[in-house]
Amino acid sequence: MSLSSSTRTSSQGSRAAGRSAGGGSTRLPSGRERRPALAALAVILILLGAAGSALIALNSGNRTDFVAISADALPPGHKIEAKDFSRGDLAGATGGLVPWSQAGKYVGRYTTSWLYKDQFVTPENFTKDGQQPIPQGAALVGVSLDAGHAPSDGLNVGDVVQIVRVPGGNDGGGNSVELVGAASVTSTAGAITDSKTSANSSLNVTLLVPQSKVTLVAAAAAAKTLSVAKLPPGTTADALRSGSN
Predict the structure, then answer these.
(1) Which residue stretches of 99-229 are H helix?
(2) How far apart are CA 219 and CA 226, in angstroms?
(3) Which of 62, 99, 150, 166 keeps 20 to 30 A from 44, CA to CA?
(4) Do residues 155 and 205 touch, judged by C-beta distance below 8 A?
(5) Which has the closest alpha carbon to 65: 142, 7, 120?
(6) For the chain, how far is it from start to end, CA to CA, in angstroms?
(7) Alpha-carbon distance 161 to 203, whole Å?
């Protein structure tokens, strides 16, 4: 009887040991063991999201102010004023553009090509410091215009006008003669009518004309027989046309 009991005890112990050894190698993690891993994964995802948001915010804040055009259009030969510029910000590849901090450097210079509203500019869009915008075969001529010889609301830089010689007091009713079909206004000063007294005054204008027309225009201006008429926007000045003389 003692032998039988010993045998059963030994057999049961062997089976229990076998189950313990086999079960230890295939047991799946419990729910409690998975929770720390999921929590760590969630933390990693949160950190990655925060890093991505920070990178986006950093890039969006990496914007720089540049010089843009505020006027609807500026023709070649236009003398730049501070009001012609507006500030615009850009990010990314902006090499060659004029920074807003240098805007004052270009006030008083002249445009070398047509520029349009909201266009960002480069140094090549303007003449060099002190350089006058006189194309080959052209000339700048100054004239003084009285009431009846120019539009009553005056002229602006960039306007294009037709220049006409009208009969003077000693012409005996002669005919008007076109001197320049289209001349560009590069600067203005004064006004046809004084804004304070409403009295007639003089409008001083600098015009870009073909060099071959300078003598005729200057003579008519001196004789007070020169009149100008404003042409539609976008008209090309004769002096800017290829091959004009």
Answers:
(1) 214-222
(2) 9
(3) 62
(4) yes
(5) 120
(6) 138
(7) 14
Supply 76's token pair. Answer: 């070649």
Phi-psi sector, 79: left (phi>0), alpha (psi -120 to 50), beta:
beta
3-state SS assignment for residue 233? coil
Record the tokens describing residue 116, joined without a space: 């349009």
Query: What is the chain's length?
Result: 245
- Spatial distance between the Cα atoms of 22 and 18, rounded to a whole number of angstroms: 6
CA distances from 118 to 58, 72, 127, 165 (A): 26, 8, 20, 39
Helix (H, G, I), strand (E, B) or coil at 88: strand
Is 110 in contact with 79 (CB distance < 8 Å)? Answer: yes
Decide: 140 and 207 in contact? Cβ < 8 Å: yes
Tell how far CA 181 is from the center of its chain.
Answer: 32
* pLDDT digit string (tens) for the chain, length 245 residues: 444 444 444 555 555 444 544 445 555 555 556 677 777 778 888 888 877 776 665 555 567 899 999 998 887 778 899 999 999 988 766 778 999 999 999 999 888 777 899 999 999 888 888 766 677 788 889 899 988 899 988 898 889 999 999 987 666 567 899 999 999 988 888 888 766 766 677 899 989 999 999 999 999 999 999 999 999 988 999 988 754 55
How many CB atoms sit inside 10 A of residue 236's CB? 16
> What is residue 119's predicted lDDT score, i.e. its pLDDT?
93
Instruction: List C-alpha distances in Å: 124 to 44, 99, 128, 129.
Output: 51, 14, 9, 12
